[in-house]
Every structure is written in C-alpha cells, then in structure tokens.
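>> Question from a student workshop board

For tomorrow's exercise we were told to take the sequence and the ligand below, predict the bound structure, and bring the output to class. My setup keeps failing. Could a helper post the expected result so I can at least see what it should look like? The ligand is S-adenosyl-L-homocysteine.
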Amino acid sequence: MQSSGTYKDDFRHQGMRRKLIDNLRGKGITDETVLSAMNTIPRHFFLDMAFEKIAYEDKAFPIAAEQTISQPYTVAYQTQLLQIKKGDKVLEIGTGSIYQTTILAEMGAQAVFTIERQKKLFDLQKNYVFKGKYLNIKFFYGDGFIGLPTYAPFDKILITAAAPFIPPKLVEQLKIGGFMVLPVDEGENQRMLRITKLADGSIQQEQFEEFSFVPMLAGKNL
Ligand code: SAH
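>> Workshop helper replied:
Here is what the output should look like for this input. Compare the format with yours to find the bug.
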C-alpha cells in the first residue's frame, strides 16, 4: 500500500478503471452492485507506487510477505457469488492488501471482519487509505481456520486463499441460510465453491470455475 499523502485518483486512473469494469463485464460479471463498488474504489491505492500504471490490468500483483492482491476478475467473481446485502455481517479470511475488504465494505455490509495471518500485512491497516471512512471494517491478526467465534454467526464468509478443505469451524460460524465462498484445492488449481448452510446445520455445495490462489496456511506468521 502507498504511504499516506501520495494518493491521487485522477482522470487517467478513472478512465483505466472504467475500462477494467467493461473488461469484467465482457468476462461475464453481471452484478452491477459489484461493478459499481469496483468502479468506486481506486485499486492503485492498495499497491506500491511502482504498479500505478498497471494497477488496472486484470492481473494479480505482489504485495508484502510474498502474497498477492487478487486479480480483479477473481475479486468480482467471489463478491458476485456472495450476494452481499446491505446490513450483512461478513467474515473475510486473508486481508492481504485490504482491497477486497474495502469492496465488501463499500457494498454496504454492516460489518466486515477480516483476518490476516501475516503480521506484515496486518500492520498495513495502520496506513489504511480509507481510515475514518469505512468504520465497518474490523481488522484481526490471527488464523482463518479458527475464524472469530466471539463475533459469530456471520451472514457471509469469504476465503481469499486456497483452502485445503472446507474449514469446519467456519461452517459452524455461518448463519443458517448464509453463504461461504471459497476456493478449495484440486491439484494445481482450486475449484470455487459456494456453501449454503441449511436449517439442520448441514451444508449444500455448488461448484464454479477453477482459480489459482496462494495457499491458506495454519497458524500465524510474525
Ligand atoms: N483479499 C486479498 C487476497 C490476498 S492473498 C487481496 O485481495 O489483497 C491471500 C491472503 O490470505 C494472504 O495475505 C495470506 O497471508 C492470507 N492467509 C493465508 N492463510 C491464512 C489464514 N489461515 N488466516 C488468515 N489469512 C490467511
């Protein structure tokens, strides 16, 4: 993330952003509330200055701690599957650059709880560009496999790293009728899944496209 005082969102950035939104529409993203949130939030604010000119390419880029900011198509795809409604209480695993977190907050979630296991990335929140604007974001340094039992249940849960399996503790923390969207390992790539929690506590599973994420790892890293 850029250091404070360097943020500018001029007509060139806005133009590149509009093109990216058209590109996402062309790739099959249809939810206008997702596209509108992505058109509002300047992605280049979440990257090092060196990426300013390419920040609106539909690509993942390196951030700190050998992690990546997700590709815009992936962010749009996962957010569209989540069907965020105003007032939703959301849990995100893998804060990373805080870009996806901000999209969820912009869409009107009542609260977005986000967990990061890399201390370096968690510390980025000190420079968070939209401090004071999205007071509905709550940052946690911890292990996403454990979730946040104190704040459960959640209407929606989003995992933004490759999960080796469906984390059982997160299923417990999902509301009845709630959605969890997560990429689950399937060899080299991961299959995007949407889990719905049913009234008897069991889950129903839908399968979508394949993606490639950094791994979801257990425990915290200093
Ligand atoms: N949503 C982020 C994606 C970052 S990549 C963005 O768009 O910028 C995935 C992130 O998940 C990485 O930052 C990684 O450190 C984090 N991660 C991996 N395993 C985790 C776990 N068990 N708990 C919390 N975060 C985890």
